[in-house]
Amino acid sequence: MIQQEMNRYFCPICLIFGIIGCLLNILLFSQKQFRNISCCTYFLVASISMIIILILGFGLHAYSVNHSNLVHTISSFYKIRSYIAQSFMMIHHGMCVNSIVAFTIYHSLFTIIFGDFLPLLIMITFVILIRYNLATKQQRRQRNMYKIKGSTVRLLNSSNYQALMMLFVQVIFYIVLTIPWMIFSIYAPFGRRIHNKSNNCIAVEIVFRYITEILVYTYPTLSFYINTFTSQIFRDELVNILCSLLISFS
Fold it and tell me: Cys-Cys crosslink for 11: which of 36, 61, 141, 170, Cβ 3.0 to 4.6 Å?
């Protein structure tokens, strides 16, 4: 019942707002002001992959309300969907598994390492490296201050640090929304070995798996809104674009 209601209302809302947000991300990060910032190239590519993730995630959940779930009825579609979703999940950052315990453990370890821990480690590492790179660039600009106007230097520093802040906040949200799925991925292969489960226990596992999966797909939905609340430059550029569109259509 909970899953049906969330598929009917929550998933379509997240899908609509998520795709709109990702399209606005692509539009904004394609602007000249952001193209000069290395972090924004990542945001641009990530926004494209997030659209695919949203369609494969929330889109299929919303479709299953009034139709048979393609993931459960077509085995080949299930496998292709899982492969594509996880591949694009790694870019911006229920599987078919064998019932044999050894395969479930292998799959869980693979998912946790390459789908959870490794992307988190890469994201955190690059945040640290980008922070160090920005500090180095700032020192270099200060030494060459006489060649560059002071206002230009301040603008570059502000843009770089706000882009870094957007990346930092997105990493935090990614970690928070991914941890429940990581916990379930660790539990799942061992839970399969318990044969005398009550119906309540099975129901709780199904709901917990569903919620953790939904949380993972929620991250792409929030990306644009995280950027909007985090960065003043991002908000200003968004307002400028929206005003230009209103003027052009008026």
Answer: 61
- Summarised one tens digit per residue, pLDDT across range 110-137 is 666 666 667 667 767 766 776 677 667 6
From the list 218, 214, 217, 191, the residue with the least C-alpha distance to 204 is 191
> Within 13 Å, how many C-alpha atoms sit on residue 193's CB side?
9
Contacts of 113 (CB under 8 A, 6+ apart): none
Give the whole-angstrom CA distance, residue 15 versus residue 64. 14
What is the token pair recorded at 76?
């080949």
Following CA atoms 234, 237, 241, 246 in sequence, which dihedral angle do they give, to the nearest 10 degrees?
A: 100
Tokens at 132, concatenated: 């160090």
- What are the boundaries of each domain within the chain? 2-223
2-223 CATH choice from 1.20.1070.10, 3.20.20.140, 3.30.300.20, 1.20.1250.20:
1.20.1070.10
**Taking CA 217 as the corner, what is the angle to CA 215 and CA 222, rounded to the nearest 5 degrees?**
90
Residues 154 and 63: beta-carbon distance below 8 Å: no
User: What is the model's pTM?
Assistant: 0.69
